[in-house]
Write a structure and sequence with these properties.
With 186 residues, the chain is α/β, with parallel strands linked by helices. Helix content is 51%, strand content 13%. The protein has ten helices and four strands. It has a four-stranded parallel sheet with strand order 2-1-3-4, sandwiched between helices.
């Protein structure tokens, strides 16, 4: 699991399944981030770089993107990842590594809840990400109902993988969320 540092003022969290080869350690720092940035902000700088580098975001007039966080859930090399990607629930229910990952992500959600008090929207890209998030939320319900209820009351967007999202009409939902973060021009 690759996770970025949590930001207190974070209002929106993008959760993607894994880094791409051209991301160089920064989620959405490669070609998919470039396409997403072009669609959301009409910029030619990768979305991950805008979020990570405040000076670049400020120079382009998008300093409000600092309120967006991006994290990845997988490295892609996990033993259970192919089954998760294909949706084989029976195989996953007996996989010890997957169970540990669900526990780890449930603890991560607790940390997000305690540190990111302004978080109101989570965008889940890809089926594998959505499935792990749901399993972690179910686990969290067993441990801490209050925190689980907080996440369930947030706005959750279940989107296709970022590579498919580029061609999906639901990109407008994400664009509206990003536009709401921008300060008003009046």
């Amino acid at each position: 699991m690759v996770q970025l540092s949590l930001k207190r003022k974070m209002k929106v969290l993008f959760v993607i399944d894994r880094l791409q080869d051209d991301d160089f350690g920064v989620p959405l720092g490669g070609h998919l981030g470039l396409k997403l940035s072009h669609l959301l902000l009409q910029e030619s700088i990768p979305f991950g770089r805008l979020i990570q580098d405040r000076s670049v975001a400020k120079a382009t007039g998008h300093s409000y993107v600092k309120r967006i966080g991006v994290e990845t859930m997988f490295t892609g090399e996990e033993s259970y990842y192919p089954d998760l990607f294909r949706g084989n629930r029976q195989t996953l229910s007996t996989d010890e590594d997957y169970y540990k990952t669900v526990q780890r992500y449930a603890k991560h959600l607790l940390a997000v809840h305690s540190k990111c008090t302004k978080l109101h929207t989570i965008v889940l890209f890809g089926r594998s990400t959505q499935r792990l998030f749901q399993d972690a939320l179910t686990r969290l319900e067993e441990e801490n109902e209050h925190v689980a209820a907080t996440f369930q009351s947030m706005t959750l967007f279940h989107m296709p993988a970022v590579s498919r999202m580029i061609r999906d009409e639901r990109i407008n939902h994400i664009r509206e969320v990003v536009v709401e973060l921008a300060p008003s021009n009046s």
